[in-house]
Specification:
Elements: E1 5-11, H1 13-16, H2 24-35, E2 38-45, H3 49-62, E3 65-69, H4 80-87, E4 91-94, H5 96-106, H6 114-120, E5 125-128, E6 132-135, E7 145-148, E8 152-155, H7 159-168, H8 170-176, E9 186-193, H9 197-214, E10 219-225, E11 230-238, H10 242-255, E12 259-261, H11 263-270
Parallel strand pairs: 1-2, 1-3, 3-8
Antiparallel strand pairs: 4-5, 6-7, 7-8, 9-11, 9-12, 10-11
GO molecular function, one term: FAD diphosphatase activity
Domain MoaB/Mog: 7-176
Pfam families: MoCF_biosynth
């Protein structure tokens, strides 16, 4: 089976102007990694119609699984649903199922005036058409995962909601993209070495050339850890090449006078401030 490819479209001026830090794309990257999906692009755009439309059209032509996050609230700058619908010639209408779920969960009519209620229900005004489907997979949430062409999946930008909905979506994604063969799932080794990047660069260059002849999925990387006195080599590939990956890990440890690091420790030191 061909590898499923993915992209993530982050939507929001607040990310571009530094008001908030994007937490969704790192989560999505790990999500794809765990499913054996090849994440190819992460794109961030502002709350601008032309940017959103052009970006989603381009990504949908290139990749299988596109997740969008952000821009589906009640305010004037929340235009994701309208823009994505417009990109594919669809209308947006008030979704009665979504409205009913909102009424059950938060009883908006009892607490909002008519103008605020109109804005509130903008969040239930979804793209509509034969190629559109809304998934309600979390009982305590009214917000759906709105899908177009089983290709674009629209998520809220709030990290807790984005992550909860994605976690609920694993089995659906596996079914849509026929992800059954675990041999295509990813695996990775980390090797610590006190040699500098300049000292190891030729070895890694030759190793990448060799590994590419085995599989173009195998990627060799190096990552400096300033102030810690060592660098990390990453050996990345799919489980169907596990024997070869283990072999070059052992060879790298020997060649670079290194030692293996756990993924947990590597993540900890990579994300330190």
């Amino acid at each position: 089976m061909p590898k499923t490819t993915a992209a993530c479209l982050i939507i929001g001026d607040e990310v571009l102007n530094g008001k908030i830090q994007d937490a969704n794309s790192p989560f999505f990257a790990k999500y794809c990694y765990n499913l054996g999906i090849e994440l190819k692009e992460i794109v961030t755009v502002g709350d601008e119609e032309e940017q959103i439309i052009n970006s989603i059209k381009r990504l949908s032509k290139k990749y299988d699984f596109i997740a969008t996050t952000g821009g589906i609230g009640p305010t004037h700058d929340d235009i994701t649903y309208e823009c994505i619908a417009k990109a594919f010639g669809l209308d947006c209408i008030l979704d009665e199922e979504c409205k009913a779920r909102m009424q059950i969960k938060s009883n908006p009519e009892a607490r909002l005036d008519s103008e605020a209620l109109k804005d509130y229900y903008r969040m239930a005004t979804l793209p509509t058409g034969s190629n559109v489907k809304s998934y309600y997979l979390v009982d305590d949430l009214w917000v759906p995962i709105c899908s177009i062409n089983n290709n674009i999946f629209i998520f809220p930008g709030i990290p807790q909601l984005f992550q909860k909905l994605l976690d609920s979506f694993v089995d659906v994604i596996k079914d849509i993209y026929n992800i059954k063969d675990q041999s295509h799932e990813y695996m990775r080794y980390f090797v610590k070495t006190t040699l500098s990047e300049s000292q190891i660069s030729q070895y890694l260059r030759n190793l990448q050339t060799e590994a590419s002849c085995v599989s173009d999925e195998i990627k060799i990387g190096s990552y400096p850890h300033f102030g810690l006195g060592f660098n990390t080599v990453s050996i990345f590939g799919t489980k169907d090449n596990s024997e070869y990956l283990n072999k070059i890990k052992i060879r790298t440890i020997e060649k670079l006078n290194g030692e293996e690091l756990s993924a947990e420790y590597e993540e900890q030191i990579s994300n330190r401030i």
